[in-house]
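For reproducibility, we list the full input for the 4'-deoxy-4'-aminopyridoxal-5'-phosphate complex.
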Amino acid sequence: MLFDKFQSMADFQASLAEQEVAPFGAVTEEILSASEGVVQGRKVILAGTNNYLGLSYDPRCIKAAQDAAQRWGTGTTGSRLANGSFAEHQALEEEIAEFYGVNHAIVFSTGYAATMGMCSTLAGPGDVILMDGDSHASIYAGVKLSGAEVIRFKHSDPEDLAKRMRRLGDRAAGQALIIAEGIYSMLGDVAPLQEIAAVKREYGGYLLVDEAHSMGVLGDSGRGAAQAAGVEADVDFSVGTFSKSLGAIGGFCVSPHAELEAIRFCITAYIFTASSSPSVIASTRESLRIISQEPQLRKKLWDNANRLYNGLKSLGLPVGPTASPVVAVAMDDRSATIDCWKALMDAGVYVNLVVPPASPSTNFLLRNSVSAAHSREQIDTIIAAYSGLKDAGLINPSQAA
Ligand code: PMP
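The corresponding predicted structure, in tokenized form, follows.
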């Protein structure tokens, strides 16, 4: 039966319905500010949004979107290759290329389309992709479509990557595409890009970095993990999204290679989909301007990230080796994690509940994402909510994964 494979998911959904909780697809009924909303009838601090700089609710970005809707209408109703390239899209491509200090940029309708589109198009039959084993689903989807040979290296393990590059012999130099992320989305760990870039320098090949969670967050001017690691010159393609630190939706690829202009016309995820609405492009342009000119937002984000990380760590919770705007508490029991998620909601804190395969191992995660828009008091409320889980016996550090 076609539907048999969905039975375990249906059972899982039914068990959640019995518990009257909806950790997946929890409906936001109202947005009160960049850091607060009403979710499932409760006023909560939003601590699971990826709105790292709080720009989704910045008055300047909202105004830019309003003006663009007034001027250009609500949608483009067409692909970039047909009627969907407005002056706004072109301007954003120029601005994002300039932001990255390169000459070429493509703007996509989503971050997923950017990553999937680039990974599926850059390498093809006869080429070989070396991807981090904990890559995002959009990378997995892209490499599957590519027709290239796909080799997974151990998560953030440059030695394993080097071993696999060595085995490729002559093919490594011309036909290998290495794919890594900047900050990994579920645990918040940063890729060892200095070491990965050194492997590329030794064996050759091309390097693509998905900066979805690191753009606007890392690097002196917010360009991401490659900038922070000082290896931008080794990166051939940086991809990213407008849906996190830029507070909108959309994606991009930037590159120093002039070939990107030809590649553009080969990416089905770019050709066969409508371009972003002008209002989305306009707010993204404004966000990009703000992150270029207001580094204090990044500083505030990191102050908050360190505060939450240190607070949860001092409660004895397993939070990963270093502070990051993504702070995940790993647990080994599904129903205990759901109970914690619900208790956090009752305490007025919305976080992400993550279950395998979205979490990188067999663990269940309470994933917190920090924003520059959080006040210190809000961060302290989040920490107090976790402390409450401990007091209620819902979370026991020694039993956490
Ligand atoms: N790449 C990575 C690493 C991501 O985490 C995400 C989103 N979670 C995407 C790509 C896709 O971006 P978007 O949601 O903006 O389509």
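DSSP finds 15 helices and 14 strands in the chain. Residues 110-112, 115, 136, 138, 181, 185, 210, 212-213, 241, 243, 251 surround 4'-deoxy-4'-aminopyridoxal-5'-phosphate (CB under 6 Å). Both points were considered when choosing residues for closer inspection.
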